Task: structure prediction
Amino acid sequence: MEKQRLGKHGLDIDAGGPQGPQFTPARIAVIYAVAGALWILFSDQLLEVLVPSGPLNAAIQTAKGWVFVAVSTALLLVLMRRQARQREAVAGQVRAVLDSIGDAVLVVDPDLRVVDGNRAALRLFGVSSKAELLGPLVDLAAASRMRLPDGSPILPKDFASVRALRGETVRRMPVVFRPGTDVEVAAEVTAAPVEDRTEGPVRFAVAVFRDVSEVRRLDDMRDEFLATAAHEFKTPLAVIKAYVQLLQRRSAPDAPALDVVNRQVDRLSRLVQQLLEVARFRVGGPDLRLAEYDLSKQVEEVLDRMRRAAGGHRLHLATAPSAAVRADRGRIEQVLVSLLDNALKFSPRGGDVTVAVLRGSGEAVVSVRDAGMGIPPERQERLFSRYYRAHEDDPDDRGGFGLGLDLAREIVSRHGGRVWFESEAGTGSTFFFSLPLAAEAPRASA
Amino acid sequence: MPAREGTILVVEDDPDLLALEAEILRGLGYRVATAGDGLEALERAAADPPALILLDMRMPRMDGWQFAKAFRERYGDACPIVVVTAAEDARRRAAEVGAAGFLEKPFDLEEVFREVERHLNAAAGPHP
Result:
């Protein structure tokens, strides 16, 4: 393999190749024409100098013609061989590049035949030679038992490369293989059409398979760990909470103290929940389970539930026109609880908390207004930072991890909405979040 | 003579929580059988067919998923199962094993009462 030249902007495939100037067909033609013209112009003069005119003149002229043919043929041969070598060098470079890519690459022609593949493709499809890779795409898919992650088969018309041959660009389509052994390989396929020129007919599809088995395995381990952590934390909390409630029923004089214990257990549960959620969300996070429902109804339900725990506060619902959203109900409930929790927590002297649902253009906006301590301007900027607690040094610090708003923003932005606020120190704060209305919501998970 | 019909089988590996759930249900007047894991629960169910099962999911030896599957294979869908779980998405957990309901740890006593009454009344017809 020839040495690859690395140009300033990466691998330099087009310019020159490894053996000097490139001989394009035009350049070959020019060299040929110049050589021919020089011959025609000067060969006769040269001949007169070298050979005195005589009876042999006709034979010499004929010989000169043959010499011209021989020399020009040799010249063409040299030039064309050189060009062929350069082509081979470029092809070799492309091959080397292809083979050094860690992801499996397949090239599929319009007859749905695999016409090329790289070294990683041999590994992924569990074959030992390239010959086994080439041939009908359907055979390769069957031999490697390619399926969707849920185990269902993929129709040939839905193959990423077949879709690419129809002109579509497919990004990160998840598939699984079981090549040879029973070890499942999870991969993401990205496929694109290769066209002659822009708008030209599709000549090939290139499909790139990225092996994500290791990523999946780590995901599974993380989920397993978080599930264990949740179980381990919440089982003792469940025991404490239920016994406290049993004792409350039996012992009237202790009821107020037990009430406090009960509230603190709830607080601890929420903190545990938040920690687990953040861990999960930050590392790629759970998928949203989207369903269409009325946001206003949900706001009413959550308010009803929280009124019971609200103590001296009064929770109001100002306006709530029905607003159909396509969202993950559990996650949005978390956002609502988090905002209401904050409103109550940071209004230590009581006062009203007013919630409103508004329908804007294409989105529903929920606002939560309190008459609490407000957020000083110099702390407002960092409010959404994880672990930031705006009231950390205040005499009436209410505790917490500083995770609620961070999480709320993460959840809402995954739905295609946003969270913002207005606040004045001493008079209170209003927090808003928006969600796209059902008709406008993106179909795929945000 | 129990005040109410039917045995409730409580399956939970944490002994304190097991004792507590049993105490709550006995307080409501139900007969209660207890098991520390899925295998033990299958034995209890064979000895005394339950009218309702409260099922923890993460347990040693035989977990909630395996137990629910084995139980259904033997006895069909007659007995409702209520999943008691710490999982983030209790509703989905419950759906995975075809449970009739779920309780999220930590639960409120009221929720336990409601859930138990709902299933036993549905199974036995309304109480007077």
Summary: Chain A touches chain B at residues 227-228, 230-231, 233-243, 245-246, 249, 265-266, 269, 273, 276-277, 280, 286, 289, 330 (CB under 8 Å).
